[in-house]
Amino acid sequence: MSAATAGTAHRAAAGGRRAGVRDQVDIAVLGGGIIGCLTAREIIRRAPGASVLLLDRELVGGGASLRSAGLHIPRGATAAVREMARFSHEHYRKLVQDRPGLPLRPVAMRVVGTAADEPRLRTDYLPEAELTATSDLPDEVSLPPGAAAWSVQGGHYADVAQVTRALTADLRTDAQIGEAVRVDAVTEHRDGVALRLGTGEELTAGKVVLAPGPWLAAPAWRAMVAPLEARVKKVVALHVGGRPAPHDAAVIFEREDAFLLPLPERGHWLFSYTCSEWDVDPDAPSKGLTEHNLHEAREILRRHAPAMAAGRLSGRVFCDAYSGTGEPTVRALGDGRVVFAGAANGSGYRLGPAIAARAADLLDMGGS
């Protein structure tokens, strides 16, 4: 859809329109997490005349975005992810300049690995990271025998839910936002994509962006996304230790795929490690910490921050969608009028701007 033809859905269908949702829109974005919000924002930037509807089953900024650590690390394990990280790094740099009040907080960063890791680290981390050997670590962290550490520039962390809601507030002047609106069916047909909502309303969208986060198995699109072979994995982040100082650095434990993030505004550290519990239901009644989760986390903490391992642990638990390739999935489905954007392997915030740009590319919304 070109910007020249966008906006046709602003004209009301003759009669029968129910309050709250237009009968026809140019683009519907399904999912109001950080990826869906950034995608709607990118569509409106490229095609300001388009009619855009953003729908979420709860409040925008909920789900995985609400529980996200929001840590931005300027790196990528593959060439494709590095390019996405570079794009997103620049996007967030400009966003902070334009919106200094958003809760995006710069944080010093250290990477802990071994000397043998250095060549790979220098490939994975962006040039902007300025990877430099260091011995300056937070007081709580010690280097195990044979370990080495590097400093990294350009890291930040965000309150992802607040960022999502602030950006969505901006969108409300140019798009329609539907919260607590479940999508019960998504059906492609000759004239567009039909959406049936849990409110009983029906509408047609010219194109749809599907950004469901971990709700891959929702009946409305389960069959549509099945060929992507994405899976849902439990995500665990623990609240540990005493109150960090404002200057404390985040520490990335390269070998363990884990990190410690200081949250002085919350009065604790956040420790995230890679949990291996797959095929989790995001609607399961209990997603709390288990004895096994605490055991796994303490095993890593004992090697790097023993005092933290000895304390009482609590935290946040949810799940997220993973592609299995290590790269986010942004792909046209069916006849091309539905675009899936997600399965970002726990990096939905970090790579969100690049995911949004690729989704807009597939919608043919014009150049970036």
Write the layout of secondary structure elements.
Layout: E1 24-30, H1 34-46, E2 52-55, H2 63-67, E3 71-72, H3 79-98, E4 104-106, E5 109-114, H4 118-124, E6 132-133, E7 147-152, E8 156-158, H5 160-171, E9 176-178, E10 183-189, E11 192-197, E12 202-210, H6 222-225, E13 231-240, E14 250-253, E15 258-263, E16 268-273, H7 291-304, H8 306-310, E17 314-322, E18 329-333, E19 338-342, H9 348-362
Parallel strand pairs: 1-2, 1-12, 2-9, 5-14, 12-19
Antiparallel strand pairs: 3-8, 4-8, 5-7, 6-7, 10-11, 11-12, 13-16, 13-17, 14-15, 15-16, 18-19
Helix pairs in contact: 1-5, 1-9, 3-9
What does this structure look like?
With 368 residues, the chain is α+β, with helices and mostly antiparallel strands. The chain is built from nine helices and 19 strands. Strands 1, 2, 9, 10, 11, 12, 18 and 19 form an eight-stranded mixed sheet that branches. An eight-stranded mixed sheet has the order 6-7-5-14-15-16-13-17. A hairpin with a 4-residue loop joins strand 11 and strand 12. Helix 1 packs parallel to helix 5 (160-171), helix 1 (34-46) packs parallel to helix 9 and helix 3 (79-98) packs across helix 9. The longest helix is centred in the N-terminal third of the chain and has 20 residues, at 79-98. The chain is globular and about 65 Å long.
